C-alpha cells in the first residue's frame, strides 16, 4: 500500500508542445511553493544551459523538488522537466519513466498541436496519469472552451475540470498543485526490498564525478553503500545522495519513491548510463528495471577540426559532451579533403546544430561539419546488406543491387486554409499521403510518410514559412523504403572533395548538382587561379560553374605606405583564413560545407 511517507510524494513531469508554457509553468510552481525567492528566479531556472536559453527550448531533462503545504499536510512534489522538441523525444520518454503522472500543458490560444499529441501518447504509453492544464488564459485570444472540447474530442481526456491558468501572471496556479496531489498516484515500492533506482539523466561534474539523477523505485540508497550499475556491472561506493532544491542539497538517505541524485566518484559515464538500474552490490535485485526507449542517432555527419592539429582536442570535447548526452555517438573518420575527424550521430538536425555550437563555444574549436546523412541500407549484388552513413563509403553502382532509405510517419497539424500549401510541400519532398482528419473544422491533421532525408534539412522551416508559423510537426521512424539513389560528387579544380559528396534520389541529381555548384560559386572566394566547380555522378559531369581568378591583391587597396593599416588588413585576412580549409589546391570556407545543404 506504500509507506506513510510515500502518501506525501508525487513524481510528475510537464509535457507540452513547444512554447505552450511548460518552463514558465514550472517556474510559477517553483515560485509558489517558495522553493526559490523571486530574486533567485530571475530567469527560467529549469532551462539553465546558456544555449538553451538563447534558443528558448528545453534540452536536458532536469528535476526540482517542491514542498507544497496545504490543509491535509505537506507534500513533496518532484517535478522532472522534459524537452519539447521532436529531436529530443527520447529524453521525454526516459524522464517519464521516473514519474507516476504528467501535466499536459495546452496553450489556450493554440489548442492541440502536433507535439501535444505525441507527448501525450508517450505519457499514456508509460501508463502515466495525465492532468491537462490549459495555459495562457490571460491572453485575449484565449479560447478556453474550444480547447477543452479539443482535448476531450481528440485525446479523450476529461478536461472540464482541468486547471485553467496563466503561467505568466500566476492565475490559478494553486489549482495545478492540487491537481497534482489529488490526481497523480503516489509512488509505490518497499524500502526494505533490494535497491532498484532508475537513472533518468546524468552529467559530469569535475568535482563530484558523474552525478546520476535517479528515481528510487525499490529500497534505499545512502552514502557508504556499495552500489552496482546493472548494465555495466560496475561497482562503486556512494559518496553523496541528495535532492534538487533546485541546487543539489545532500540528504542522509533516498527512500523508495524519491527522486534525487547519487554520486560515487564515478569517472566515466559509460559506467552509469542513462536508463541503467542501480542496485545494491551486496544484495542485488534479480532483474533491472525495464529499459528505456533507447536513443538512436538518426542523422550522421562528419565533424573535422579546421586546424588539423586540434584533432585530439576535438576528441576530448566529444567525449565530454557524450558524458551529458547519451544520444551523441561518434567514431573516428578520415577524409581525403579534411583529414582526421569524426563521424557523429545525432537525433536530428537541431541536436546536430547544438553539438556543433557547443564544440565551438565551450571548447573553442573551430570545426567543419559535412552534409548530414541518414542511415542507408545497401543491398549488394553479393547478397550482403550494409549500412551507410557516409556517402564516401557507398560501393560502386555495379556492386549495388538496390538501396533503401529510412522513412518517417509525419503528422502535421495546420489551419485548414493551409492544407493545400502543406500538401504541396509534402509532395515535393517525396511524401506519400496517408490521411487527413479534422480538429473542430478549423484545423486539419495531415499524415504522411516522408523520407527522413527530406525532412532533416529545412523541412520544418519551410513548413513554418508556408503556413505563416501556424503548422506544427511531429514524426516518428517508420522503417525503410526502396529508392533509386545515386552518389553526387563535387569536384573543385578537378579534384573530388569527398566531404561534399551526398546521396540523393536519382531524379533529383541534376537539379541538386546545378544548385550546389551555383551555391558553391557564391561562397568560395576568388583565389589566385580559376577554380572549376563540377558536380558529377560517377565519371559523368552533370553541372559546372567557375570561380574566376582574383585580379587584385588585398594590399593593393592600401595606397601609400601606411604600415599599421597594412598590418591590420593582413591581420584581418588571417582571421578570415582561420575559417578556411585548404582542400587540395583550393581554400574552402567553413560554411561552404553547410551551405550545400541549404539549397532547395
Ligand atoms: N501571455 C502568456 N504568455 C505565456 C504564458 N505562459 C508562457 N507564456 C509565454 O510563452 C512563451 C513560451 O513559454 P515557455 O515556458 O518558454 O514554453 P515551453 O513550453 O517551456 O517551451 P520550450 O521550453 O521551448 O519547450 C514565453 O514567451 C512565455 O513568456 C501565459 O500564461 N500567458
TrEMBL record:
<dbReference type="GO" id="GO:0005886">
    <property type="term" value="C:plasma membrane"/>
</dbReference>
<dbReference type="Pfam" id="PF03144">
    <property type="entry name" value="GTP_EFTU_D2"/>
</dbReference>
<dbReference type="GO" id="GO:0003924">
    <property type="term" value="F:GTPase activity"/>
</dbReference>
<feature type="binding site">
    <location>
        <begin position="19"/>
        <end position="24"/>
    </location>
    <ligand>
        <name>GTP</name>
    </ligand>
</feature>
<dbReference type="InterPro" id="IPR000795">
    <property type="entry name" value="T_Tr_GTP-bd_dom"/>
</dbReference>
<dbReference type="InterPro" id="IPR005225">
    <property type="entry name" value="Small_GTP-bd"/>
</dbReference>
<dbReference type="InterPro" id="IPR006297">
    <property type="entry name" value="EF-4"/>
</dbReference>
<keyword id="KW-1003">Cell membrane</keyword>
<dbReference type="GO" id="GO:0045727">
    <property type="term" value="P:positive regulation of translation"/>
</dbReference>
<keyword id="KW-0378">Hydrolase</keyword>
<keyword id="KW-0547">Nucleotide-binding</keyword>
<dbReference type="GO" id="GO:0003746">
    <property type="term" value="F:translation elongation factor activity"/>
</dbReference>
<dbReference type="InterPro" id="IPR013842">
    <property type="entry name" value="LepA_CTD"/>
</dbReference>
<protein>
    <recommendedName>
        <fullName>Elongation factor 4</fullName>
        <ecNumber>3.6.5.n1</ecNumber>
    </recommendedName>
</protein>
<dbReference type="InterPro" id="IPR009000">
    <property type="entry name" value="Transl_B-barrel_sf"/>
</dbReference>
<dbReference type="InterPro" id="IPR035654">
    <property type="entry name" value="LepA_IV"/>
</dbReference>
<dbReference type="InterPro" id="IPR035647">
    <property type="entry name" value="EFG_III/V"/>
</dbReference>
<feature type="domain" description="Tr-type G">
    <location>
        <begin position="7"/>
        <end position="188"/>
    </location>
</feature>
<dbReference type="InterPro" id="IPR000640">
    <property type="entry name" value="EFG_V-like"/>
</dbReference>
<dbReference type="InterPro" id="IPR031157">
    <property type="entry name" value="G_TR_CS"/>
</dbReference>
<dbReference type="InterPro" id="IPR027417">
    <property type="entry name" value="P-loop_NTPase"/>
</dbReference>
<comment type="similarity">
    <text>Belongs to the TRAFAC class translation factor GTPase superfamily. Classic translation factor GTPase family. LepA subfamily.</text>
</comment>
<dbReference type="Pfam" id="PF00009">
    <property type="entry name" value="GTP_EFTU"/>
</dbReference>
<dbReference type="InterPro" id="IPR038363">
    <property type="entry name" value="LepA_C_sf"/>
</dbReference>
<dbReference type="InterPro" id="IPR004161">
    <property type="entry name" value="EFTu-like_2"/>
</dbReference>
<keyword id="KW-0342">GTP-binding</keyword>
<comment type="similarity">
    <text>Belongs to the GTP-binding elongation factor family. LepA subfamily.</text>
</comment>
<keyword id="KW-0472">Membrane</keyword>
<comment type="function">
    <text>Required for accurate and efficient protein synthesis under certain stress conditions. May act as a fidelity factor of the translation reaction, by catalyzing a one-codon backward translocation of tRNAs on improperly translocated ribosomes. Back-translocation proceeds from a post-translocation (POST) complex to a pre-translocation (PRE) complex, thus giving elongation factor G a second chance to translocate the tRNAs correctly. Binds to ribosomes in a GTP-dependent manner.</text>
</comment>
<dbReference type="Pfam" id="PF00679">
    <property type="entry name" value="EFG_C"/>
</dbReference>
<dbReference type="Pfam" id="PF06421">
    <property type="entry name" value="LepA_C"/>
</dbReference>
<feature type="binding site">
    <location>
        <begin position="135"/>
        <end position="138"/>
    </location>
    <ligand>
        <name>GTP</name>
    </ligand>
</feature>
<keyword id="KW-0648">Protein biosynthesis</keyword>
<dbReference type="GO" id="GO:0005525">
    <property type="term" value="F:GTP binding"/>
</dbReference>
<dbReference type="GO" id="GO:0043022">
    <property type="term" value="F:ribosome binding"/>
</dbReference>
Amino acid at each position: 500500500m506504500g509507506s506513510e511517507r510515500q502518501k506525501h510524494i508525487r513524481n510528475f513531469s510537464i509535457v507540452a508542445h513547444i512554447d505552450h508554457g511548460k518552463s514558465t509553468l514550472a517556474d510559477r510552481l517553483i515560485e509558489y511553493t517558495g522553493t526559490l525567492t523571486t530574486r533567485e528566479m530571475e530567469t527560467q531556472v529549469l532551462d539553465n544551459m546558456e544555449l538553451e536559453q538563447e534558443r528558448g527550448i528545453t534540452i536536458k531533462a532536469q528535476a526540482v523538488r517542491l514542498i507544497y503545504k496545504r490543509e491535509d499536510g505537506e507534500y513533496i512534489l518532484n517535478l522532472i522537466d522534459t524537452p519539447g522538441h521532436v529531436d529530443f523525444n527520447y529524453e521525454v520518454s526516459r524522464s517519464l519513466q521516473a514519474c507516476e503522472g504528467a501535466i499536459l500543458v495546452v496553450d489556450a490560444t493554440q489548442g492541440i498541436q502536433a507535439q501535444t499529441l505525441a507527448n501525450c501518447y508517450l505519457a499514456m504509453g508509460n501508463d502515466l496519469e495525465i492532468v491537462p492544464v490549459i495555459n495562457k488564459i490571460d491572453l485575449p485570444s484565449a479560447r478556453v472552451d474550444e480547447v477543452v472540447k479539443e482535448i476531450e474530442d481528440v485525446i479523450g481526456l476529461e478536461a472540464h475540470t482541468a486547471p485553467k491558468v496563466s503561467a505568466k501572471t500566476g492565475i490559478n496556479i494553486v489549482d495545478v498543485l492540487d491537481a497534482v496531489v489529488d490526481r497523480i498516484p503516489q509512488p509505490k515500492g518497499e524500502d526494505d526490498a533490494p535497491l532498484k533506482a532508475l537513472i533518468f539523466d546524468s552529467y559530469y561534474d569535475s568535482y563530484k564525478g558523474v552525478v546520476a539523477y535517479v528515481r528510487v523505485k525499490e529500497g534505499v540508497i545512502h552514502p557508504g553503500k556499495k552500489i552496482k550499475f546493472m548494465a555495466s556491472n560496475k561497482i562503486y561506493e556512494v559518496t553523496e545522495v541528495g535532492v534538487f532544491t533546485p541546487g543539489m542539497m545532500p540528504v542522509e538517505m533516498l527512500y523508495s519513491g524519491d527522486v534525487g541524485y547519487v554520486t560515487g566518484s564515478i569517472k566515466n559515464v559509460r559506467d552509469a548510463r542513462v536508463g541503467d538500474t542501480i542496485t545494491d552490490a551486496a544484495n542485488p535485485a534479480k532483474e533491472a528495471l525495464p529499459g528505456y526507449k533507447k536513443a538512436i542517432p538518426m542523422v550522421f555527419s562528419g565533424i573535422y577540426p579546421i586546424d588539423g592539429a586540434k584533432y585530439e582536442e576535438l576528441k576530448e570535447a566529444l567525449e565530454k559532451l557524450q558524458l551529458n548526452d547519451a544520444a551523441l555517438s561518434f567514431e573516428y573518420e578520415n577524409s581525403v579533403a579534411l583529414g582526421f575527424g569524426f563521424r557523429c550521430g545525432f537525433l536530428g538536425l537541431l541536436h546536430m546544430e547544438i553539438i556543433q555550437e557547443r564544440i565551438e563555444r565551450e571548447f573553442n574549436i573551430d570545426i567543419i561539419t559535412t552534409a548530414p546523412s541518414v542511415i542507408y541500407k545497401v543491398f549488394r549484388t553479393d547478397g550482403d546488406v550494409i549500412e551507410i552513413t557516409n556517402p564516401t563509403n557507398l560501393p560502386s553502382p555495379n556492386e549495388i543491387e538496390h538501396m533503401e532509405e529510412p522513412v518517417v510517419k509525419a503528422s502535421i497539424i495546420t489551419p485548414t486554409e493551409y492544407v493545400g500549401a502543406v500538401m504541396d510541400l509534402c509532395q515535393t519532398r517525396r511524401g506519400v499521403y496517408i490521411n487527413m482528419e479534422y480538429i473542430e473544422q478549423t484545423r486539419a491533421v495531415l499524415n504522411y510518410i516522408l523520407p527522413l532525408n527530406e525532412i532533416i534539412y529545412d523541412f520544418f522551416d519551410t513548413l513554418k514559412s508556408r503556413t505563416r508559423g501556424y503548422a506544427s510537426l511531429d514524426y516518428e521512424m517508420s522503417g525503410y523504403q526502396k529508392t533509386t539513389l545515386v552518389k553526387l560528387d563535387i569536384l573543385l579544380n578537378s579534384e573530388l572533395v569527398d566531404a561534399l559528396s551526398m546521396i540523393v534520389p536519382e531524379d533529383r541529381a541534376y537539379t541538386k548538382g546545378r544548385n550546389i555548384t551555383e551555391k558553391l560559386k557564391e561562397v568560395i572566394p576568388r583565389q589566385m587561379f580559376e577554380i572549376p566547380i563540377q558536380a558529377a555522378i560517377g565519371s559523368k559531369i552533370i553541372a559546372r560553374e567557375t570561380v574566376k581568378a582574383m585580379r587584385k591583391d588585398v594590399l593593393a587597396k592600401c595606397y601609400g605606405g601606411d604600415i599599421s593599416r597594412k598590418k591590420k588588413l593582413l591581420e584581418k585576412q588571417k582571421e578570415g583564413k582561420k575559417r578556411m580549409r585548404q582542400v587540395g589546391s583550393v581554400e574552402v570556407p567553413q560554411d561552404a560545407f553547410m551551405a550545400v545543404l541549404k539549397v532547395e
